[in-house]
Amino acid sequence: MSYTLRGRIDSRLAALLPLLVVCLAVGGAVHQWWPVELCVLMGATGVALDLELWRRLPYQPAWAALPLGLVELGAVMAVVYGFGLHAPLGPALALFGAGWLLALLLGQAGFPLLRLGYAEDGGELGRAGPAAGAAIVLALAGSAATYAVRLPPVVHLSAGVHRGPLVIRQREILQGSPGAIVRGGIVVAHDDVQIRDVTVVGGTNGITVDGYRNTVLDGVTVEGAKLDGIHVRLAGVVIRNCTVDMLGNRLGQGIDISFNMDKGMSIVEGCTVVGGQQGITTHSSGTEIMGNTVSRTAEQAIDIEEMSMGMASHNTVRDARGIGLYCNDRSTCMFDHNTVVGTQPDRAAGGRAAQGLAVLASFESEADLWRNRLSGNAGGVGTVTDSELRWTPTPGW
Amino acid sequence: MVGSGLAGFTAYRTLRRALPPDEIAVFGTDADPAAAWRGRAAAIRQRAMRSESNGHTGPTTFPGLAFRAARHRRSPRPLLETAADRFHPTVEEFLAHVEEARERSGWDTSLVPRRVERVRAMDGGFAVDGELFRHVLIATGHAGLNMPEELRGDPRAVHAYEPHEYASTVTVVGAGLAAATEWLNALAAGAEVVSVRRREPVRRPLTVPRPMLTKRGLASFHRLPAEERAERIRRLVAPSYPPGRAWDEPLARAAAEGRFRVEQSVNGSEQVICATGFLRGFRHDPLLARLVAEHELETVDRFVVLAPDSTVPALSDGTRTLALAGAPAAWAFPSADSLSGARYAAHHFLRRVRACRTR
Questions:
Q1: For the domain B149-201+239-274, what is the CATH superfamily, name and number?
Q2: pLDDT for A62-81, tens place per residue?
Q3: Chain B residue whose CA is closest to A105
Q4: Are residues A362 and A274 in the same domain?
Q5: What pTM was computed for the model?
Q6: CA-CA distances (angstroms) from residue A366 to A67, A328, A377, A393, B38?
Q7: d(Cα A200, Cα A222) in Å, to the nearest integer?
Q8: Is A350 found in the same domain as A384?
Q9: Which domain holds residue A127?
Q10: In principle, which of A6, A185, A273, B157 could form an S-S bond with A244, CB 3.0–4.6 Å?
Q11: Chain centroid, CA B14 distance in Å
Q12: Phi, psi at A358, each rounded to 5°
């Protein structure tokens, strides 16, 4: 087919329309936006390539749909990863494949049957082309409206001290004003809660998330908690840019994320944790620990435990007592680009901790190391009880 | 419709999307729409079509002949071949498809077995030998075989599209698909072959570059000034045949054996085959020549000037339509004498008919 530019756009939009309906249905079924985002991205990428590249093709044999489709797939996946679109790979590929196949069948058979002059008009669909475009715009406008309506309400927490514990029982964004302090802790008791720019002082745990989905803690400060600074159980969380002060608390953990292996990947990123028995610890969890600074902990600075599968990357660990990076109890760990300095021996604990190790893999655990900087530590790296440390030539597992 | 050949049949099948057989009259001398084409294909012993899957008489490109062949051969191979533009239906497959389509279409019901001598515009339509019609499509086909002037009357000369056998020394005049087919035919028959041609043959898969089959190439073509457009048509429909080893290898082998050579003029061969195509231009068609003369229609060189939708602008408006299909429609569609060209004219004719409120 020798497409005109309008023919390419008409055909693409008309083929996208049924796929968009599928995407909306799938998105509604799984209560997530990625199918719609992916559909929009596929359409936008395709139209962009039509405008910039494919229009230059004077003729496109049917077989060319395959290489052109692969290029479009590459472009879509580059954008997906580049912009951090959280689309699961398998379903995303299936959706793309379905869209590609549908477009191929419609282009080769469906449109020629529906419109007499489809081939000689270079793929143009007459009034149906703009109608398809309008329908897509309408569907996306509806999606955008739905998204806006479904956004959680923003609750502003004014400056000053608010008596806690504060229990959040609805979807909301709790936005702290500068100087907003909650004394006595915050308990998240609903899905889809975001807490931003709030300082929490005291409480049994500073912030507790137990059994609720999609919690985001951004820019929170926690100090003076009796047990853990941030305590997460059976829940997926994203914790960013937090500060947790556990100085003086030898038994609590700065951030403890546990038993959420089936809740998807949790993230701890850009936080500063000072003091505590462990700075950041995970148990039976899949958590990425990235770009944090952990210092002056009493036993382990970053601790991946109890059949966890975790990655600690680009973190700085200073002046920990006992162990800097710890992979324990049948866990699988990746430590890369971390800096561990000044780890001190913990003579009271005995065992390998008494040596002040920068990295330790313990009890049938496996840890891969890549480009970590270990300096000024009392001990080096070590393994105990059928564990393994590997220096990998490439990043990742 | 005036004309009952393949162009007329393609148009008929398109019209049948909107009209019952009794609302269509097809004037022609042969009930078999493939009769003329069949004879010519047999004369040059053509076995496969130059056209591809969509070289059929249906109103839509899909399902094409590859789809049909896949069904009949019970093999996906034709579909794979057509994806790579390598599927060429056999002549038998093409003719069988025409026959099937003819039986299903109601063609015989609409056929009026009569040669039309005159089409004349009247108030509210056109008189076709005295009968009034609001919309008329003229698809009279090629006006006749083209024999070089210097070979007329030469007892050795035969046109490629006339039945013939091969002598032991054969000169083939021409450089198109028929000429190339005749080179191979004569060589296969054991003849020594001389190719006489004015120019080196153009090698391309179809008669025109593919973009010229769609709006992509046609839009700029339709904007050309008249003289330039006429020149463009002449260049586009210059003799050509497809590239490929199936053509080149037998010729190279025969040339190496001294059985094939190119010369500038006809020599002393026992037989001269003129693969020189058809008479071109409206003046060779008495019906068209009369129509142009009586209505003083605009022409350029050998072409009747047509609107991009293949209609005659001076005689078409919201209430009536006069359109050309087949070879005389080259002004609108350079490859008008192909099946794609017939479909192009048919689609636009149907649009006109549908748009006419008084039909």
A1: FAD/NAD(P)-binding domain (3.50.50.60)
A2: 999 999 999 999 999 999 88
A3: B62
A4: yes
A5: 0.74
A6: 41, 8, 21, 16, 78
A7: 5
A8: yes
A9: 5-150
A10: A273
A11: 17
A12: -70, -40
Nearest-CA distance B61 → chain A (Å): 6
Q: Given an 8 Å threshold on Cβ–Cβ distance, is A4 in contact with B340? A: no
Which residue has tokens 């600075």? A301
| Structure tokens belonging to residue A10 | 């008409």
Largest interatomic CA distance in chain B: 68
Q: What is the pLDDT of residues A280-303, one digit of tens each?
A: 999 999 999 999 999 999 999 999
The CATH 3.50.50.60 domain(s) of chain B lie at 149-201+239-274
Q: Is B173 within 8 Å of B148 (Cβ atoms)?
A: yes
Please give the C-alpha separations between residue A222 and each of A198, A242, B42, B168, in angstroms, as whole numbers: 9, 8, 93, 104
Is there a single domain that holds both residue A386 and residue A260?
A: yes
Q: B347 and A119: CB-CB below 8 Å?
A: no
- Of B199, B315, B345, B168, the residue nearest B264 (C-alpha): B199
Strand positions, DSSP E, chain B: 26-28, 111-113, 119-122, 125-128, 131-133, 135-138, 157-159, 169-173, 192-196, 202-203, 240-241, 260-263, 271-274, 299-300, 303-304, 321-324
Contacts of B217 in chain A (CB under 8 A): 2
* Chosen domain end from A115, A150, A185: A150
Contacts by residues B295-302 (CB-CB < 8 Å, ≥ 24 positions apart): B295/B120, B295/B121, B300/B226, B300/B227, B300/B229, B300/B230, B300/B331, B301/B230, B302/B230
Residue A33 lies in a domain: yes
CA-to-CA distance for A144 and A40, rounded, in angstroms? 12
- Identify whether the C-beta of residue A331 lies closer than 8 Å to the C-beta of residue A352: no
Task: Residue B56: count other Cβ atoms within 10 Å of its Cβ.
Answer: 29
Residue B20's nearest CA partner among B126, B134, B110 is B110
- How many domains is chain A partitioned into structurally? 2
Contact A62 B214 (CB under 8 A): no
Q: What is the CATH number of the domain that holds A350?
A: 2.160.20.10
Residues A117 and A264 in one domain: no
* Lowest-confidence segment of A136-140, A351-355, A389-393 by average pLDDT: A351-355
Reported as a pLDDT band with limits 50, 70 and 90, residue A32 is: confident
> Looking at beta carbons, which residues of chain B come within 8 Å of A59?
210-211
Q: Is A189 helix (H, G, I), strand (E, B) or coil?
A: coil
Write the class of the CATH domain B6-144+279-355: alpha beta
Give residue-wise pLDDT tens across range B292-325: 999 999 999 999 999 999 999 999 998 999 999 9
Helix, coil or strand: residue B259: coil
In a domain, A229, yes or no: yes
Identify the CA nearest to A196 among candidates A252, A139, A157.
Answer: A157
Q: Are residues A254 and A316 in the same domain?
A: yes
A239 and A130 together in one domain:
no
Cα distance between residue A51 and residue B324, in whole Å: 36
Residues A142 and A191 in one domain: no
CA distance B344 to A113: 15
Place of tokens 């655990």: A365
- Give Dmax (Cα) for chain A: 86
Peptide bond into B286 cis (omega under 30): no
CA distance B341 to B207: 11
Q: What would the two tokens of residue A163 be?
A: 């008596």
Dist CA B35 CA B58 (whole Å): 18
Q: Which residues of B touch A (CB under 8 A)?
A: 14, 17, 54, 59-63, 82-85, 209-211, 213-219, 340, 343-344, 347-348, 350
Domain end point (choices A150, A180, A213): A150
Within 10 Å of residue A162's Cβ, how many Cβ atoms? 17
Torsion over CA: B115, B118, B119, B122 (sign): negative
In chain B, whose CA is at the least distance from the CA of A58? B211
